[in-house]
Specification:
Blueprint (H helix, E strand, L loop, with lengths): L1 H17 L4 E8 L2 E8 L2 H13 L4 E8 L10 E5 L3 E5 L10 H7 E6 L3 E8 L2 E5 L5 E5 L3 E4 L4 H13 L10 E4 L6 H8 L11 E2 L2 E2 L1 H13 L7 H4 L4 E3 L9 E6 L5 E8 L3 E7 L4 E6 H4 L3 E8 L5 E4 L7
Parallel strand pairs: 2-3
Antiparallel strand pairs: 1-2, 4-7, 4-10, 5-6, 7-8, 8-9, 11-20, 12-13, 14-19, 15-16, 15-19, 16-17, 17-18
Helix pairs in contact: 1-2, 5-6
């Protein structure tokens, strides 16, 4: 009974966080402990389950929990292709019956573009929980995508995995190193400049609207065919950490806003002085700004180098909701 109550409380917690509980877990009593099996959405959910049982001093003898967002396992219920120009992905389940622009502005977490292949993890009413090839999870309007038959699994899976491998981190936990000789880092700035004055849009990834991590993602994709994760603190796991005094053009700087602890990221441009190109929420658009001015409102957290002169190196990015 204690174990069942623990699972019910966890299910409520995840339902509040994700808008629906993708949580099918059961426990069985074994000699000297319990067996936990089923399906959860993310690795953090699995870890949360195990930690709660450990804190309650309930001995776990066996664990068999599948993680739906883990791209290394074929545990999706289907595949889909985006049929409209831009489809918004939402961080929470909200039916179209009550969804409006005001709500969308708060919960947009990413965008998918026409022809993009999505893994379908869960269905609820008029929404689908999907995963993009950068591992972003989100809810998409059922009417904005085309569901594909199981018979097309191999073709779609192959295309998705091919895109996935351009991330620089593999399906397994190994580190992937790709030679990158004679990189023109100024190409990063040339690409970023194409987005100057594009309006700030939370979760945006296009010239109609973009946010800070959307900007860094599209710049690296367009300039070097490197796909970074969508969210800033996931991007913070890519490349290698460097000292702020050693930053060069093209490096990423991660910040926390002093007033509300909002997470932020921008692209370094270093000439006689150091500037940051970023999608500024204060200025409501993409701008070039002196780094000293940025530090007036933001606290520095970390600088990362995504591209080395001779090689680039990524650690595997774990999916985060």
């Amino acid at each position: 009974m204690l174990a069942e109550n623990i699972l019910k409380n966890l299910e409520k917690t995840y339902q509040q966080k994700y808008g629906v509980a993708v949580f099918d877990v059961e426990v069985k009593n074994l000699k000297g402990g319990i067996k936990i099996s089923g399906e959860v959405l993310t690795e953090s959910q699995r870890d949360g389950i195990l930690n709660v049982f450990k804190k309650k001093r309930i001995k776990i003898k066996k664990v068999n929990l599948k993680i739906l967002s883990d791209a290394s396992e074929r545990n999706e219920i289907g595949w889909a292709i985006v049929k409209i120009k831009i489809a918004d992905l939402k961080s929470r389940f909200i039916s179209n019956k009550i969804l409006n622009n005001k709500i969308l502005k708060r919960i947009r977490c990413s965008q998918a573009f026409q022809g993009e292949v999505l893994r379908v993890l869960f269905k609820k009413d008029d929404q689908l929980l999907v995963q993009q090839n950068d591992l972003t999870l989100g809810w998409v309007n059922r009417k904005e995508i085309i569901l594909k038959r199981e018979s097309l699994y191999k073709d779609l899976y192959g295309e998705w995995i091919q895109q996935f491998h351009t991330l620089g981190y593999g399906i397994k936990d190994e580190i992937t190193t790709v030679g990158m000789m004679n990189i023109d880092k100024d190409k990063t700035i040339k690409e970023a400049e194409k987005y100057f004055d594009v309006p700030y849009l939370l979760g945006g990834k296009s010239k109609k609207g973009i946010d800070c991590s959307g900007l860094t993602q599209v710049v690296y994709k367009n300039a070097f065919n490197i796909i970074l994760p969508k969210h800033s603190w996931d991007q913070k796991e890519a490349g290698k950490k460097i000292n702020l005094k050693n930053v060069e053009t093209g490096d990423l700087i991660f910040l926390i806003k002093k007033s509300n602890e909002h997470k932020h990221v921008g692209i370094v441009e270093k000439n006689k002085s150091v500037h940051l190109i970023h999608a500024s929420l204060e200025r409501k658009k993409v701008v070039r700004q002196k780094l000293d001015e940025v530090f007036e409102k933001y606290d520095f957290r970390e600088a990362r180098r995504i591209i080395e002169i001779e090689t680039k190196k990524f650690d595997r990015i774990k999916s985060k909701s």
